[in-house]
């Protein structure tokens, strides 16, 4: 066991959700409130990475407060009836971590209820702790709060954790907490995102198999 605790992001790290759920939800809502706005999946990935989803909604699309609330409600309803699939190999990594006596935690911007549902539906081992969008804004990524709570709860030092994330807030959180960070690069194949994550992370993996080999001490 290379790390006592693996701290997984959720969307596009554990489950393939942007391409199959979040982007289609975004497209469907835009057809209702901004029918002239058109984006490709790659454009959505790029903008979600930088500057982020809220600047896209507020600055680029100019959503009003009412439209923003409508988008959130539309997205929650869309997600509730659709379960993304876990990436092949993730289950095996997580099962081995638990089997060897390690810890498994989740720090995500998804709702805790959605995260736990996705774990159940994909046959993944239940996490020891989950931090999600339900938490107060000041405690969400990129805040260090969740990592500090994990360390305190289980008596761990920062170098005994590994954060696995596909986006910059996860990198910023890990860096601020002094926790190693592995970039998850298997959700898309966009050079600009890969370059930025390689620069920000301690490790970067284009495939789940690459992460698996690293955790088994083969890389």
Would you spell out the secondary-structure blueprint of this structure?
Layout: E1 5-8, H1 18-33, H2 41-49, H3 53-60, H4 65-80, H5 90-99, E2 103-107, H6 112-121, E3 129-131, H7 145-154, E4 161-165, H8 168-177, E5 181-184, H9 191-200, E6 203-205, H10 208-215
Parallel strand pairs: 1-2, 1-4, 2-3, 4-5, 5-6
Explain what this protein looks like in three dimensions.
49% of the residues lie in helices and 11% in strands. It folds into two domains: 141 residues, 3-Layer(aba) Sandwich (Rossmann fold); 63 residues. The radius of gyration is 17 Å and the shape is globular. It is α/β, with parallel strands linked by helices. The chain has a six-stranded parallel β-sheet, with helices on both faces. The two termini are 14 Å apart.
CATH homology-level superfamily of the largest domain = HAD superfamily/HAD-like
Mean pLDDT: 97
Sum up the overall morphology in one term.
globular
Number of strands: 6
How many domain modules? 2
Query: What is the N-to-C succession of helices and strands?
Result: EHHHHHEHEHEHEHEH
Which strand order do you get reading across the main beta sheet?
Answer: 3-2-1-4-5-6
Strand content: 5-15%
CATH architecture of the largest domain: 3-Layer(aba) Sandwich
Task: Tell me the major beta sheet.
Answer: 6 strands, parallel
The class by helix and strand makeup works out as alpha/beta
Head-to-tail CA distance between termini: 14 Å
- Helical content stands at 40-55%
Unreliable runs:
none
The CATH class of the largest domain, by name, is: Alpha Beta
- CATH topology of the largest domain, by name, is Rossmann fold
Number of helices: 10
Radius of gyration: 17 Å
């Amino acid at each position: 066991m290379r790390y006592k605790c693996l701290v997984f992001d959720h969307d596009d790290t554990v489950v393939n959700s942007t391409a199959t759920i979040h982007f289609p939800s975004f497209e469907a809502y835009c057809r209702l409130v901004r029918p002239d706005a058109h984006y490709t999946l790659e454009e959505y990935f790029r903008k979600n990475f930088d500057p982020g989803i809220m600047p896209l909604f507020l600055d680029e699309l100019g959503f009003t407060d009412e439209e923003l609330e409508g988008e959130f409600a539309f997205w929650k309803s869309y997600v509730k009836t659709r379960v993304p699939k876990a990436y092949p190999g993730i289950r095996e990594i997580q099962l081995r971590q638990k089997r060897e006596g390690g810890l498994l935690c989740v720090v995500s911007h998804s709702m805790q209820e959605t995260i736990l549902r996705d774990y159940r539906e994909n046959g993944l081992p239940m996490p020891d702790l989950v931090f999600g969008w339900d938490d107060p804004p000041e405690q969400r990524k990129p805040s260090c709060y969740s990592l500090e709570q994990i360390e305190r709860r289980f008596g761990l030092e920062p170098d005994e954790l590994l954060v696995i994330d596909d986006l910059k807030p996860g990198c910023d959180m890990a860096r601020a907490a002094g926790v190693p960070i592995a970039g998850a690069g298997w959700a898309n194949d966009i050079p600009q995102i890969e370059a930025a994550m390689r620069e920000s992370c301690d490790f970067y993996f284009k495939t789940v198999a690459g992460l698996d080999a690293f955790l088994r001490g083969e890389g």
